[in-house]
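Human: I'm a chemist; would you kindly supply sequence and structure tokens for a protein?

Assistant:
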Amino acid sequence: MHRSRNYDLGKDGLWFLVLSLPLPTALGQAVNVLYAIVDRMFIGHIAGYGDIALAGVGVAAPIATFLSSFATLIGMGGAPIMAMREGHGDHAIAERVLTTSFYLLLAASAILTPLFLIFRNPLLLAFGASDVTLPYASEYLGWYVIGTPFALLASGLNSFVINQGMAKKGMISVLAGAVLNIMLDPLFIFTFDMGVKGAAIATVISQMGSMLISVMALRQRSTSIKLRFRGFMPSQIMRIIRLGLSSFIIISTDSLLLIVLNAMLQKYGGPELGDILITCSTIVQSYHILVTYPMGGMTSGCQGLISYNYGAGLTERVRKGINDLQILITGYTVVMFIFTIFGARLFASLFTSDPEILALSSRYMLIYECMIIPLSLQYVNVDMMTALGQVQISLPLSLTRKFTSFLSSIILPIFFGAAAAFFSEPISNIVSSILGTIIMRTHLKPILEKRLRNGLSI
């Protein structure tokens, strides 16, 4: 397609496109942040035990996120296949791919739900829960896991809504769930006095609302590729998984890194400091996703622009588009870095009123985010290489950052104490941004020259 809605990707001004295209995805990711942090904001202010409960939820949250990443495996694998089949004129096959993905999401839920319910306490103890925080972590994760089918279907099916050009409906699905969660949290946590359990139940109900909106969007008469609940295609299963594997690895390893960080903080913080450090880590991670999710939305929002011009052989527009996007993302991280310096304590106060935790969280937030400006290079390098179809480059670049963070999280506390684990993020950011930029600058020109010389091969 030469045109995307009101935009001509091959002719419109690049700055106009770079500023316009990322906006919906960035806003959608910003809304997604609300899902992740609104529970923690209310839980942290529960009278009498809010800070300890917040630490418990902080241990449970990465496990919950890891569960949700299976929606990415299926959604990001199946939705592009559906779109490609439709573009090729294979409408019936496109609908069968959607149906197959729907049943794969149900199958994943059926396997993961009992598995994580049974083993949740050993997992939580291994990943940073103490005897004090385990009851809160177990209660929150237990109720969250019960809602796994809603979480996977809401997120997974949303990819199929967006890949049909229904970006607004996809955003409405996410936004409705986030708004419902904000409304239900104080009602269940405080009015009904359900505490941590109330926060988890509110999240499950909100995810069920998002799922219903996505299902209705895929079932309505005006939808081109409909969810019909028939036509399962076993032959497509491995192709869906292979295509979604890269995105799944990237997202799931983020959860694993948080699990490692919490485990190191608990192990080296000891009985006196471990739970406090995990409470601080929960606040720091809440701010980190507030920074990075919209940034990821911006880069993914420009992938279509870069992919289209690469496919059209407009290599100079590809080069300039990547440079313009880098300027935009760098500007965003500069603004967020300044806000971190002056607003860290204000943000932490949304989660706690304890003076010690406020002071520590503010300090660790500054440490954790001190290299977010170089991180902008990493985001552009990885996502633009993906947009050019160079997954063999983008995936190792992403995993290099995660591997560096993993090693730092383990090694630093051994020599410098538990709190040194917070330096793992800036170390991995600077290492990966330097390495990624070198690789990007040495490979981009040959890739574009090969495109002009040999034509397009997908």
Q: What stands out?
A: The CA atoms of residues 149 and 296 lie 25 Å apart. Residues 1-6 have pLDDT under 50 and may be disordered.
